[in-house]
Amino acid sequence: MQPENQWNSEDSRTTLLREEGESMKRKIRSVWAGFVEFALRDNVLEVAVGLIIATAFTGVVNSLVTDVILPPISLLPFMSRNLEEKFLVLRKGPHYLKPHGYNTRQQAVDDGAVVLTYGVFIDQFVNFIGIGLVLYTIANVYGYFSRDSIIRHTVKCTYCRKEISSKAKRCPMCTSWLDGREDVETSALPLSRPGQA
Q1: What residue ranges in the chain does DSSP mark as E strands?
Q2: Interior CA angle at 97 toward 104 and 105, to 5°?
Q3: Do 58 and 66 meet the contact criterion of CB atoms below 8 Å apart?
Q4: Which of 78, 128, 132, 143 sees the fewest Cβ atoms within 10 Å?
Q5: Coiled-coil region(s) at which residues (predicted)?
Q6: How many other C-beta atoms lie within 10 A of the C-beta of residue 149?
Q7: Percent of the chain with pLDDT over 90
Q8: How many Å separate Cα 129 from the centre of its chain?
Q9: Per residue in 51-80, pLDDT tens?
């Protein structure tokens, strides 16, 4: 026979373990519900879809610039190779051949030469300009068809000099009215006229 206080001790341990288990389940459910609420919000999904489309769009524009626009540029008389292979040797490597030099950037780098790869910079710059022009065109087409431009035109507030929307009637920074109300006398007392005491 077991003593009565040992039974009470085992019951209290079982009860304590059950309460701890229930508390842990509630915490896990709460964390899961918070995660689901965060991850499946409308704006999070919109941002995710937007990023995926932007990544695909960037790939298309990069291909347009690199594979379609730059090859004809490399055919110009002053270009002797692809634009991204244009480089200038600043310090020669140990295996530099005087009459020919290096044929590619990779040859120069493998030989330990210090090279200025200005062709890659021009390639990236043309890429940037191409992406910017395409995005600007898309924004204008969207604005034309939707009557709501995504390009926000701004002006400087005449009072606080912060950039604000050109459609604003009141500055959100300094709360000044932009229609001239701030320049009008707002005293409750009547204005004194010249000649009146």
Answers
A1: 88-91, 114-116, 154-156, 163-165
A2: 15
A3: no
A4: 78
A5: none
A6: 12
A7: 0
A8: 17
A9: 888 888 888 877 877 788 777 777 777 665
Query: Which residues are CB-contacts of 139 (< 8 A; sequence separation ≥ 6)?
Result: 149, 150, 151
Could you report how far apart the first and last alpha carbons of the chain are, in Å? 112
d(CA 147, CA 134): 19
Identity of residue 191: L
Per-position DSSP letters for 48-103, written without gaps between them:
HHHHHHHHHHHHHHHHIIIIIIHHHHHTSTT--S-GGG--EEEE--TT--TTT--S
CA-based torsion, 101, 102, 105, 107: positive or negative: negative
CB crowding 104-125: b at 16 or more within 10 Å, else e: ebeebeebebebebebeeebee
Model pTM score: 0.49
Number of helices (H) and strands (E) in the chain: give both, helices first: 5, 4
The rounded distance, in Å, linking the Cα atoms of 148 and 168 is 15
Tokens of 97: 């051949």
Q: Which two tokens stand for residue 158?
A: 């005449």
Collapsing DSSP to helix, strand or coil, 20 comes out as helix
> Do the beta carbons of residue 82 and residue 74 sit within 8 Å?
yes
